[in-house]
Amino acid sequence: MKAEISSSLFNNPNSRKLVLGLLLFSVLLLSVFSGILAVSGNLILLVPLLVLYGVFFILATPAAWTVWIIFWGAFLVTGPSAYFIRFSQLQWFTVLVSAALLLPLLLDLLRTRTSNKSMSIPSGLWGPIFLIIMVFFSTVIDQPRFSEFINASRYYLLMWPLMLVIMFGLISEKMIMQLWKALMIVAILQFPMAIYQYFFVVPSSGRNSPWDAVIGTFHGAIEGGGDSAAMAIMLLIAMLTAIALWREGKLDGLRMALVVLFGIFTLGLAEVKAAVILLPVVIGIYYRRELLKRPVEFIVAMIGAVLLVGVLFTFYEKLHYGDVSTHTFKKNQVTSTYDRVVRALDPEAQTYDGRELGRINLLVNWWKNNVSSGDLQHSLFGYGMGATYESRIGTGELVNRFPYKINTSSSLILLWEVGILGHLVFLFILLLGAKASERAADQNDVPEIHRIFLRIGAVGLILLALTMPYKNFHLYSNPIQFLMMLMLGQAAYWSRILKIG
């Protein structure tokens, strides 16, 4: 009966006009109401309205459009807006849009559930599920604060819908290919931005390390530096993408050279020692299969990568360090790039005033405060999400407990907030994702170009796993989170399609 009524309603020309008229009237009424609220200037009243508009937009547009909005927003919009006009809050835009992808995803899953009642949970979902359970459990058993939940939701919860959209095929295989190619365009665009930052921003910087201002289009501030390490990791993956595509005849030599050379020049301007050291690691992991098949090619590639590291380190000596003060840390008098690398690994490295500790020293400090002191709960489960984070919304429980920052790397954040167990879950997500990506790349049923992207994804996920104790971009950098979700999503998608979970 309802179907008949609905059919007669939309088949009747007068009824269609009535429905169209009601829709137009509703839109007009909502527009007038929006204008009144905008004039009032009450942000609290505007937020629900903006959320309503966002819901309408997400439901009305294809998921592919939304993913492109997140991509360009993360890589080219939110970073410069924070760098040039100090509008850092815009980084919430990409994660909120990603969270809104849950709407079309749920609608698609409901349709799939209706047509296939035996639908099961893909194996690629268990890692994120366990992580979210660990995050909530660690928070609930400690001293949960609403501000901590809001702060931490950006890096623990809201980007996962992007991975799920890729996993369940809401965007096409062709678009996955386009995203990887767009990443190479983003890599090229870092160079002109780095040129501007080095020649116009660095000379006016009063920092002891003015090169920190060279961050490309990534998030940061002119005065305090930013995500140069995140930019460098992206460049390594983009350069590997160009080389891999060229090697398989999918990209011409000129474009490959453009991506690689611009990437190397940007790495030189930005001064990112750890990323440079990882160059041979990335090349070695990708070319490891050639060790027995084509040993000469493998050896040449590795020698070239090692020589490039030496060239870049020499470049740092001449271009960056010069007469810069080297008395920052109390025990190690650094006089070369090598000394700076060794200092970074010193378990006792800290500044004279004790307001900054080295990475290894911070990990030792976590161990002393939790494991060595016998605090089993906080060792295993941490202090809950957002405990190490500070923003305008609120301050985490641990922020004021120490005179130095304890959230300088992803390993430290996870250990303090979700403990050893939470850290292991996050690490296993990356490593199992790399394994799934490699297994899918070995399947002949996967198109050749996607096998290339899967191998790149496997290397990229291993790279992210290796850099967890290095920086905090796994959790705090929107572009790196996008890349992580892309690599995990494509691995989960092909594993689900091929049923090789």
UniProtKB/TrEMBL annotation:
Top-level division of the source organism's lineage: Bacteria
Q: Which residues cross the membrane?
A: 44-60, 91-110, 122-141, 153-171, 183-201, 228-246, 258-286, 298-316, 411-432, 452-470, 482-498
Q: Which UniProt keywords apply?
A: Membrane, Transmembrane, Transmembrane helix
Q: What is this protein called?
A: O-antigen ligase
